[in-house]
Amino acid sequence: MAASLSARLARLRVDLTPWRGSRDFRILLVAGSIFFLGGMVGYVALPYQLYQLTGSNFAVGAMGLVTIVPLVVFGLYGGALADHVERRTLLVATGLAQVVISALMVANTLLPNPQVWLIYVCGALNAIATSLQRPSREALLPRVVKHAEIPAAVALSSLTSQIGQLAGPALGGVLVGSVGVTWAFSVELAGIVFATLLYTRLGSYRAGEHSTAPSLRAIGGGIVYAFRRKDLLATYLVDMVGMFLAMPIVLFPAFATDILKEPKLLGLLYSAEAIGAMCASLTSGWAKHVHHQGRAVVLATIGWGAAVGIAGLAPNIWFAIVFFAVAGAADMVSVLFRSVIWNQTIPDEMRGRLAGIEMLGYSLGPLGGQARSGLVADLTTVRTAIVSGGVLCVAGVVATSVWLREFWRYDARTDEHAVRERELRAAG
Asked: How far is it, in rounded angstroms, from Cα 401 to Cα 381?
């Protein structure tokens, strides 16, 4: 009995096999973790500096408007670029560009009168560099680990991101409040420098003989490929439906202050989802035994919406924190299996372009969801916006999975794309 219990618990532990077996995966993981941690420190410092300089909430929100076009345009182009050039070179080149941009942010803070226009310019340039870099980084993951280790590699990558999401804002808040934004941006700069140096240590990953030069035709080819494959289309649509209909973060200040009467605990609302996601990552060892990954994505996204809706009914803030943590765990499971499907089934010559499309999907959904939540809250109430979003999310995901029923039946053991990639990796 005790042995059986130990075996079951062992299945839950995060699988460290990719970390032990792949030097380049370790480099990607450490570099990405440091990069993300520094970026989250800057994520706190930038809006703080903008608000201090302008006193305008709109000026802070306008940064999103400045970055959305570069995100869309260069996200797609960056994906096409990642399918044609040597990916290590692209990571290093974009890293160096980010070093320059971050150094400009630090220099601006040292001016007697920091320039607001320069902050916006740096924000747009950073969005361009990030959009060019991220598809290459994500497209490398299936190249640096064994095919069967992809679920564990995705879980480890997600875990380090969650740690950065928790620790980065906390560190940024301390730095901004105690020693100022200059130090916060300097920490971000140091993280980018360190990560870029690590990227130079990666092996060479050249494009295959079937690679296509970046062009509108190549980008269009990636989009057509994504839409022709119903399993991929479902991963994008299920996530966008879930995020658009049930993204509650923009309502947290009003929910904590006006509804739950606990403004001092607002930070815990923001941390709850990350804590839940981290718990899911730490117990992700079971994921490698799941073959019906489409079903897992659907059920996890339904769980996300249901937990958000229940949190909206919370009689006190602790109830809300628990269910937002449950929502974060469910979202992490969805992220995990969507990433596994992408990395186990997409051909390497298409991986960069599809990574660019994925980046747009999980960026635009939450942005639209925040706008939806704010509008509904203004027209009705904060509780109504959160609860209705959860209910609509559940209904929308069910409807999407019925429409794309092949996704519900997806099985990694028999899916033609998964079988082909598995055989190619085994032959290579």
From this structure: 30
For residue range 24-82, list pLDDT tens digits in order: 999 999 998 898 888 888 877 887 888 888 877 677 767 777 887 888 888 888 888 88
Residue whose pair of structure tokens reads 């380049």 in the numeric block: 24
In this structure, what token pair is assigned to residue 297? 């994505």
Would you tell me the crossing angle of helices 382-403 and 293-311 to the nearest 10 degrees?
160
For position 168, which CATH number holds?
1.20.1250.20
Q: Locate tokens 């044609």: which residue?
A: 84
Decide: residue 79, CB within 10 A, 0-12 exposed, 13-18 middle, 19+ buried.
buried
pLDDT at site 341: 92
The CA distances from residue 207 to 292, 318, 348, in Å, are 31, 50, 8
Q: Does the model's pTM come out above 0.85? A: no
The low-confidence residues of the chain, meaning pLDDT below 70, are 1-13, 57, 61, 207-211, 428
Residues 195, 230 within the same domain: no
* 296 within some domain: yes
**pLDDT tens digits along 295-311:** 999 999 999 999 999 99
d(CA 156, CA 162): 10
Give the residue ranges of DSSP H helices in 180-316. 181-199, 216-228, 230-246, 252-254, 266-282, 293-311
Q: Which of 129, 58, 57, 356 is nearest to 236 (CA)?
A: 356
User: How is residue 185 written in tokens?
Assistant: 């941006």
Q: Give yes or no: residues 321 and 403 share one domain.
A: yes
Residue 305 lies in domain: 214-427
Which residues lie below 8 Å from residue 363, measured CB to CB, with a gap of 6+?
71, 75
Number of domains forming the structure of the chain: 2
